[in-house]
Write a structure and sequence with these properties.
By secondary structure, this protein is an alpha/beta fold. Helix content is about 40%, strand content about 10%. It has 14 helices and 9 strands. The strands form 3 sheets. It has a 5-stranded mixed beta sheet. Strands 2-3 form a two-stranded parallel sheet. Helix 4 links the parallel strand 2 and strand 3. The longest helix has 24 residues. The radius of gyration is 20 Å and the shape is globular. It holds the Pfam family Lipase_GDSL.
Length: about 375
């Protein structure tokens, strides 16, 4: 089932507002409208990704199709996730889920979240849940509609001054770890981990090139968080005797494989920046950011780095958050919200670090998100 965007004709007052945004972003004149409430050089934020960017609202029939028992994989809404927290810092407050919009041009101009809770980089047939390629097609259609509804130059500058946020890979690794952890193919997977990571990273790099060819000039690529520290992964691999744990109760071989993906993605982003000198692509290392928190929890105000705030069984890892009534009283003291997802408190720290480089330095490189926002294109 696909929903088409039916964009209405552009009211004159709205078109004047759009032109003023574009003009303001390429001069030093502050602008104010429904979407941009500061003088930043960003028109809109377009988000692509998996459960790191979507709570399930943008996944069709999510309660019926979810692969794991966690009906509430977020702390309440998408507003608790990293891209939305960054959007708030930029001054963008009206980013709607792709499948939650009513088709108005104003919503498209405000930014859209194309992400889907169980989206993967690799296409996996009918279970792909709006995979990377599907989301890229939705972005392409949206950009084409902008060009049809606005004059060509206005649309071009609007797209160039927007930020495109990519966060994939988490679900690809979760599926492989959980399916292969206790089988003979699991060892084969470990031995070919660099090959698998290379395939995934190349796909993300190709997506960045695709967006560049669609006139995107500001792109953020998120790494994968330390999956070996998630409550479900630690429980699952301990349950199958496939775990090798460190002092923080994280499964080391899982984290090693994720770390390799992040290393290759970081390297690839550097190459893309050399390839496209008129664009800026930023890699955000949420893996090292979260490991900093997990290794020094009290320094950041956390008390529990093992248990899910909302879940059942040992460390809340057997069944996910099927009701918000299950949630702990103080989520802000937990690193993990449910089986695989961090709490809003963690995301806020990561958002601060991504924005300014504090309290965790060098989370995003080669520049901070604040610097990306203010970069001229």
């Amino acid at each position: 089932m696909r929903r088409s965007i039916v964009v209405h004709s552009v009211p004159e007052v709205l078109l004047i507002g759009i032109l003023s945004i574009v003009h303001g972003q390429f001069t030093d004149t502050p602008t104010t409208n429904a979407h941009v409430t500061n003088s930043s050089r960003v028109s809109a934020l377009y988000v692509l990704g998996d459960s790191s960017v979507d709570c399930g609202d943008n996944t069709l029939f999510y309660p019926l199709l979810h692969g794991r028992l966690s009906l509430y994989p977020c702390n309440g809404s998408d507003a608790t996730l990293l891209p939305q927290l960054l959007a708030e810092k930029i001054g963008l407050t009206s980013i709607r889920p792709f499948y939650g919009q009513n088709g108005s041009l104003e919503e498209v101009l405000g930014g859209l979240n194309f992400g889907s809770t169980q989206a993967t980089i690799m296409n996996q047939g009918s279970y792909s849940h709006q995979s990377l390629n599907q989301q890229l097609r939705q972005v392409s259609e949206t950009m084409q509609l902008l060009q049809l509804q606005l004059n060509e130059d206005t649309a071009l500058q609007f797209i160039k001054s927007s930020i495109f946020f990519l966060s994939f890979g988490k679900e690809d690794y979760i599926e492989l770890f959980l399916h292969n952890s206790s089988s003979s193919s699991g060892m084969m997977f470990r031995n070919s981990s660099q090959y698998f990571a290379t395939i995934l990273v190349n796909q993300v790099a190709n997506a960045a090139r695709y967006l560049y060819n669609a006139n995107a000039r500001k792109i953020i690529c998120l790494g994968i968080m330390p999956l070996g520290c998630t409550p479900r992964m630690a429980w699952e691999l301990n349950h199958t005797s496939a775990g090798d744990y460190n002092a923080s109760s994280c499964v080391e071989h899982v984290n090693d494989l994720v770390f390799e993906y992040n290393r290759l993605l970081d390297e690839q982003i550097g190459k893309l920046n050399s390839e496209f000198s008129d664009a800026q692509m930023v890699f955000c290392d949420v893996y090292n950011g979260m490991m900093e928190i997990i290794n020094e929890p009290r320094l950041y105000g956390f008390e529990d780095v093992k248990s899910a705030c909302c879940g059942l069984g040992l460390n809340g890892a057997m069944i996910g958050c099927v009701s918000m009534d299950m949630a702990c009283d103080q989520a802000s003291t937990h690193v993990w919200w449910d089986l695989f997802n961090p709490t809003q408190a963690v995301n806020k720290i990561l958002a601060d670090a991504a924005w300014s480089g504090q309290p965790i330095p060098d989370l995003c490189r080669p520049i901070t998100i604040h610097e990306l926002v203010n970069m001229k294109v």
